[in-house]
Amino acid sequence: MISLLRLLRYIPLAKCLLRKNFSYDHPSLAREVFGLKFKNPVGLAAGLDKNAEVVDELGCIGFGFIEIGSVTPHAQAGNPRPRLFRLPKDRAIINHMGINNNGAAAVARNLKRRRRRRRVIIGGNISKNSATPNATAAADYERAFVKLYDTVDYFVINVSCPNVEQLRGLQDGEQLRRIVEAITEQRKYHDTYRPVLLKLSPDLSATQIEDVLALVFEYGLDGLVVANTTTRRDGLRTAPASLARIAAGGLSGAPLFTNTLDMVRYIVTLTKHQLPVIASGGVMSPRDARQLLDAGASLVQVYTGLIYNGPGFVKQILKTITN
After folding, report:
1. Looking at residue 49, which CATH number applies to its domain?
2. Of 203, 33, 112, which is closest to residue 43 (Cα–Cα)?
3. In 32, 82, 109, 123, which residue has its Cα 20 to 30 A from 222's Cα atom?
C-alpha cells in the first residue's frame, strides 16, 4: 500500500482523483479537540505510515488526521520476518513488527519536505528504541519528542506496544512518571504548544487504568488513545494450531471492538468527559465508529478495518456519521 501511494506522486492528477473518489466533506464532521481543528473525526492509527512517507496521499482518501510511527530516536529494523499475519476468519491481524522505523531525524525530514502542501493533521507516535533498557527509556522518548516537535501537530506516548520486550512495563508506576515528566518539562521550552496524549494497552485492569488517569491529570496530558493491540487470543475462530505457528505479537481488528467500547465508556464516565479520548481498536464497520463516538470518544482511528475494507472505508464511515 505504501509503495502504491508513493507511486501516485508521479502520476498527474492522481491525488485529485483520489480526493474526488474517496473524500467526503460535510460541515457537521468538523471537530475541535485538544485545541486542534479536525476536518472530520476519522484518523489513521499508528503503524501503517511509520516513516511519514505518504501522509499527503493518505489524506486524499478522506482521513481527518494521520498518526505516524511509532518513531524511535534511532532507526531500527524491527523483529525478524515473517512478522505480519492475517486471520481472515476473525477479521483480524497479528503483527510482530517490533517498531521498525527509520528514526526520528529521517521522519522529521520527510515531514518538512511536504509541510507546505499538507492538508491533514499529523500525530507523532513516539517510543523508545528496543535496545534501550526501561530504566533509561525517558531519555529516548525525550529525544524523539524534540526531533519531531516542529513537524507534527500532536504527540502520542506509546508505552503499550506488545511487540517490544518489556515496553508495556513502562505503564506502571515511576517509569511512566519519568517519561511523562520528561516530555511535559521539555514542552515548556517550545513556543508552540503541542498536545501530548498517552496510548493505553487494552489489557490493563480497572485499577491500572485509574492509576494511569491520576498521572495523566497530575501532569496535564491532553488526552488518551484507547487502545493498542492485545496479547489475548481468547474467543478467536482461527484454529489453535494455526495460531501456534504465528509469532507472538499484537492482535488488532474485530475481536478488539467490544473491549475498546467498554474502555471508552469506562474512561469517559470516570473522567466525566473532561479528557478527550481517541478510540482505536476494532473499528471494522461504519456502525463501530458511530458507536464509539456515541460512547464519548472525541475521535476514532482505523487500521485493520482499512486493510479489510479498502480505501473507500473512510468515506463510508463519514457518510454514516452525518446521517
Report:
1. 3.20.20.70
2. 33
3. 109
